Every structure is written in C-alpha cells, then in structure tokens.
Amino acid sequence: MMDCSKYEAYCSAYLDNELTAEEQAILLGHLANCAHCAAYLEHLRTLRTRLSYETVVLPTHLHDTVMDTVLQAAQATVVPLEKRRHFPVFSMLAAAVVVVLLVTTGKLGDSLWGIQNPFHPAVNSANAVTDTREAAAQNQVDTDAANATLQPPAASTQKDTAASAIVISDVPNLISSSVYAYCYVAQNVTNIPDFGGTLVTQSTSGQISYFALDNNMSTLEKALGILQESGFEAQSRTDVGGISLDTSAETGLVILIQTAPQ
C-alpha cells in the first residue's frame, strides 16, 4: 500500500497556500491517481469550513422595533395634568441604545445581573459588588462542571508533568483562527497511532501534529486510551497561546509532539 503521509501533509499546506509550484504539481498529480488522498483533501476542506466563523446578520428593523416599544411604553403612562412630570428623554434614549447593544451581542441576561449591568443605581453600589461576586462564583462553578465532563481521571505521572510543561509557539493560522471545545497535548518518541482524530495541519519540521476530534465524551475517552497505550500521556491544556476554547464548540484539538529519542 502506498505511503500517503507525505501527501496528507501536502493537502493541509495546499489549503493554506503554502506549497511551491513544484510541490503543488506533485500533489495534484498524486491526487489524480489516489482516491484516498483526494477524499482526504475534500474532508479536510469540509472540516475547515465547519471550523470557520459564521457571520450573523442582524435584522435591519431591530433598532426601530426597540425604539418604538420604549416610546409606546412611555406614552401609555397617563398622569393628571397637575401631577404630570417631565420624562427624562435623553436618559430614556440612552437606555434604549444600551438595550439594543445588549440584544445584538447576546449578553442581555448576563449583563442585567453582572458587573457590567448599566441599570444598577449608584446608591446600590454595595449590593452591586455582592451580586458581582456571586455571579463570578457561579460562573466558575459552571466552568468547572463543563470542563469536568471532558477530562478523564487524572494520573500523577512524570509524562503528565512533562506534557503540562511543553511550550508551543507559532501555532498555525488554520488552528488559531478556530475555536475548540478542549485542547490536549502529549509527546513521545513513538509513531502516532490511529486514534480517530483528523489531521488538520503539521509544523514545518513535521514534529508537531494538530488533530481535530469530535466534541463527544466517549470519542475523547477512546482516543485518549489509544494514545496512552502507545505511550502518549495526554494532558488537558488551557494555556496554549493562540488556542481559543469554548466547551460548546463542535470539535476539540489534540496536539501530538514526536520527539527525537535520547
């Protein structure tokens, strides 16, 4: 069977426009005769599309709708002439603008009770501090719970400590431009086994490989088990520069480093 590992690396570089004219000609010639690599390139292109950001277009009438609602609510309040007071129009409009901004950014619920709440009166500053601390504590609990669902039981081994100490720099643009549910890092001198991940890209030296894996607990546990059997003790990392994490993302990231034997 033909060894296609070289051409799989070419496929990733081809999508990043990093191949020379000669390397591109070699890859296209190989793709014309290798159905496996041709399918791999299409799969990689589809994965890249899934990892890209989507642009959300807001309704053009959203601002007008919010403003009309605020004005109708103000006009619906009937006050006797002798007790009628002047509405603070400027403050009311400013509040409406804040509501529009909160709705468009999707942070209305958090901002109403968090430290960025624009409607907290100054006289309730002490209560605002208390609410902020409680919200921060709850957010930490939610974050810990979300992370716990994606982390297997910890093993106190020297390899785990080594994986935590690995410093990864110059993360490829294809990786840093995407968001992942988790990030695991491991290194070993052995060859990388087939653990179910999809190779997204590699470093120029070929020592660092970036794999995408579905955001599924059973899939992750199976993959980590296969890697462990091959000597790769993967460690969960949240401090890799250039890697953006969001537990709701569709895919996770596994970074494997092949080191030279000592």
Task: Offer a concise description of the structure.
The protein is α/β, with parallel strands linked by helices and 262 residues long. It contains 10 helices and 7 strands.
Chain-averaged pLDDT: 76
The SSE string, one letter per element, is HHHHHHHHHEEEEHEEE
Low confidence ranges:
108-120, 148-157
Structural class: alpha/beta
Summarize the biggest pleated sheet.
5 strands, mixed
Q: Helix content range of the residues, please?
A: 40-55%
Mass-distribution shape: extended
Across the major sheet, the strand order is 3-4-7-2-5
DSSP summary, beta strand count: 7
What does this structure look like?
This protein is an alpha/beta fold. It is built from ten helices and seven strands. Strands 3-4-7-2-5 form a five-stranded mixed sheet. A hairpin with a 5-residue loop joins β3 (198-202) and β4.
